Amino acid sequence: MSKRKRNKIILTILSIFVGLLIIFPLLYALSLSFMSQTEMTKYPHKIIPSTLTLDNFKAALNTVPLLKFIANSFIVSICVTVGQVITASLAAYAFAFYDFKGKNLLFLMVLSTMMIPAETTVISNFLTVSSWGWNDSLQVLIVPFLTSAMGIFLMRQFYLTIPKEIREAAKIDGCGNLKFLFKILIPVSKPAIASLSIYVFINTWNQYLWPLLTINNGNNRTVQIGISMLQYSEGSNYSVVLAGAILILIPSVFIFLLGQKQLVKGMTAGAVKG
């Protein structure tokens, strides 16, 4: 056996081991969610339930309105994702194709916001939206996140891989900036748009601190607040809590698995451009 083939086998085995190590807690939680409370408390503990039951999922849905919270999170995540794709595409187009005074400095200032921890701006943002009367509404979860430096950076890096000769040829043919953006640039930017969409959707879906501060109305709470409420109500019944956690994980895991190839492709598309 050649050294190259042996190294490939070793890397494959290590990759499988690391993958199983990462996914095991999720699989274990899934197994426990189908296990009755009586069986779960038995010693020694079982990894696989002897009988499957959906009682934990029914109890989770009856204890906390998780379906309503899932719908709220889905609306918020979709709106934030669409908003960030639009604003990032427009801003990135300006940074990639326009030449104006102070462009590099402005772009550096945009990137510098990524170095500021979100927790340091929570109080000022909370006071601002409170003065506008936005608390307890879905818009308070959407509007502050309609743009991001990460999205602008990702789209700009991808746009820099597009030859400028294409834009010059389009201008000669009478194609304006918006027409070039929407008719030519965006269709070829699907990998970057898909990766940005997945990244933003999952981040928005998993938000906890901001919804906790701004939403007190039970009808507008999101899934992360819902699972905390479930844990508070069913603190000793871990099977019900895990069943609720599995329910709120399904959309984000599905979105990630659906677009993981596009996510990697989009993230690395502009890696060699400056």
From TrEMBL:
The lineage of its organism: Bacteria, Bacillati, Bacillota, Clostridia, Eubacteriales. This is Carbohydrate ABC transporter permease. CDD domains: TM_PBP2. PANTHER family: ABC TRANSPORTER PERMEASE PROTEIN MG189-RELATED-RELATED, SN-GLYCEROL-3-PHOSPHATE TRANSPORT SYSTEM PERMEASE PROTEIN UGPE. Keywords: Cell membrane, Membrane, Transmembrane, Transmembrane helix, Transport. InterPro entries: MetI-like (IPR000515), MetI-like_sf (IPR035906). Belongs to the binding-protein-dependent transport system permease family. The chain crosses the membrane at residues 9-30, 74-98, 105-126, 138-159, 180-202, 238-258. It comes from Clostridium saudiense. It is a multi-pass membrane protein. Coiled coil: none annotated. Gene3D superfamilies: MetI-like. It is found in: Cell membrane. Pfam families: BPD_transp_1 (PF00528).
